[in-house]
Design brief:
- The structure is a single chain.
- This protein is an alpha/beta fold.
- The protein has two domains: 150 residues, 3-Layer(aba) Sandwich (Rossmann fold), CATH 3.40.50.1860; 112 residues, 3-Layer(aba) Sandwich (Rossmann fold).
- 43% of the residues lie in helices and 18% in strands.
- It has twelve helices and twelve strands.
- The strands form three sheets. Strands 6-5-3-4-11-12 form a six-stranded parallel β-sheet, sandwiched between helices. A four-stranded parallel β-sheet has the order 8-7-9-10, sandwiched between helices.
- Strand 3, helix 1 and strand 4 form a beta-alpha-beta unit.
- Helix 5 crosses helix 7, helix 5 packs across helix 11 and helix 9 packs across helix 10.
- The longest helix has 16 residues.
- The chain is globular and about 50 Å long.
- It starts with a strand and ends in a 6-residue tail after the last strand.
Amino acid sequence: MRIEKNNQKADNRAIGVFDSGLGGLTAVKELMHTLPKENIVYFGDTGRVPYGTRSNETIIKYVHQDIRFLLNFNIKLIVVACGTASSVALEKVRTQFEVPIVGVVKPAVEKAISLTHSKRIGIIGTPSTINSKSYVRSIAQMAPDVKTFDKACPLFVPLVENGYLDNQVARLVAQEYLEPLKKERVDTIIMGCTHYPLLKETICKVMGEGVALVDPGAETAKYVKTFLDEKKTFAHEASKQQYRYFVSDSIAHFEELGSLFLQKKMQNCVEKIDIEQY
Ligand code: DGL
């Protein structure tokens, strides 16, 4: 840590971000925008995606490995940019590491509560996230008068990982999953999996106007800004390699879809690692 001329502390260590695949880039995109000087190390566990249909034990094991991998870099904060990992593993692993760890549930819930007028919030997520009831419990604690309706959408992650974002197939699947939430007249939906904002256009078309969509990755990035501000640990300069990405499977596939999503060419910045070693 350095003391800058204006007496502000500078902490140029990187923020570590991980997800089971591409979805966590929703948080990275927002972090790049809100905190342009921060260094980011991203890990997408593309070789083991999806997490959301696996047992809690497996997800917890994967999350330990993901964090241990990121801690090989000079990391000041870990962002669990995955609804499933945040819902199932965060509370269990948080105490086992010294580094601060933030997840996506709380920031998304706070935003949804601030947006709803009808006090009817829909939550969509992976089967593990929905079974964990993490979002439902968090809303009940923060706003007991709000009614919640949740729905697992297991086909959404494979659609995103295969680039099926706004086509007929995506629309049919979304109709099937979202119909029950439409019937319940929710006015706000938490896209409780960080992959889902890539399907935002499709979800919007199916739900119709007047339904607000909450992007947990983006909300978490805003929360990170507040966190660094409180701790006075903003970075004051970006390193030469400001953004580094690691995956556990094909680099080419991640570069292709990642560039599309970040609207930024990803070339020679993605490396493949063997996550089983961590
Ligand atoms: N982005 C992850 C999440 O937020 C994807 C889930 C998965 O890998 O199944 O839940």
